[in-house]
């Protein structure tokens, strides 16, 4: 079975988007809560109007970047329309790897601030190495954040209907509970198989 491999730019987008919760935590830590009840003013930086962040807009820029990458990644998955029928022979759910994913969150609570340049650069280097490792190993799609939005990663053995069907084993993303003996539709995006139940299967599941 070949590894699940995105191209570099989509891989980087998925990786950055997966750390949207971390960017939200850092934004919350950077917020000046003494200005929480101050009257709204615009634009910031004029007169008595100040940005309610300790380090200017850096934390806000990181937050917006991660949010954009997350929305783009989920949007790309949502627009895929699987149309090619396949028969599921075997399906095994693969749990997401939580340990490596949660390490940066632990670091964020160890007095990490944007103004602490050394720690912030160290976090960027750490995340950079994590990205390279997950990208090179083809493990990027083991993204716990996808679970929140209903996606699950499977190792499936499937075959395309025909006179002499050949079984293929690969990884696939699906929002359905894949079971052996199920007819599904499949599409491929960036070498990743996206599987959805056929209309008939979905109707059967809804009626039970």
From TrEMBL:
Which ranges does the record mark as transmembrane? 12-29, 60-80, 118-135
UniProt keywords (A-Z) are:
Membrane, Transmembrane, Transmembrane helix
Q: Superkingdom, according to UniProt?
A: Bacteria
What name appears for this protein in its UniProt entry? Uncharacterized protein
């Amino acid at each position: 079975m070949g590894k699940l491999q995105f191209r570099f730019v989509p891989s980087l987008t998925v990786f950055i988007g997966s750390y949207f919760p971390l960017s939200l935590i850092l934004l919350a830590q950077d917020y000046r809560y003494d200005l929480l009840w101050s009257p709204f003013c615009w634009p910031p930086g004029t007169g008595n109007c100040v940005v309610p962040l300790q380090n200017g807009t850096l934390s806000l820029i990181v937050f917006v970047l991660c949010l954009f990458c997350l929305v783009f990644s989920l949007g790309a998955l949502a627009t895929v329309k699987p149309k090619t029928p396949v028969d599921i022979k075997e399906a095994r759910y693969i749990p997401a790897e939580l340990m490596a994913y949660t390490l940066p969150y632990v670091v964020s609570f160890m007095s990490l601030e944007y103004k602490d340049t050394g720690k912030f650069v160290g976090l960027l280097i750490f995340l950079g190495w994590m990205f390279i490792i997950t990208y090179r190993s083809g493990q990027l799609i083991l993204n716990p954040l996808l679970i929140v939005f209903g996606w699950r990663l499977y190792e499936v053995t499937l075959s395309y209907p025909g006179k002499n069907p050949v079984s293929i084993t690969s990884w696939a993303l699906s929002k359905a509970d894949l079971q052996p003996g199920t007819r599904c539709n499949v599409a491929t995006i960036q070498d990743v198989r996206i599987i959805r139940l056929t209309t008939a299967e979905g109707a059967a599941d809804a009626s039970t």
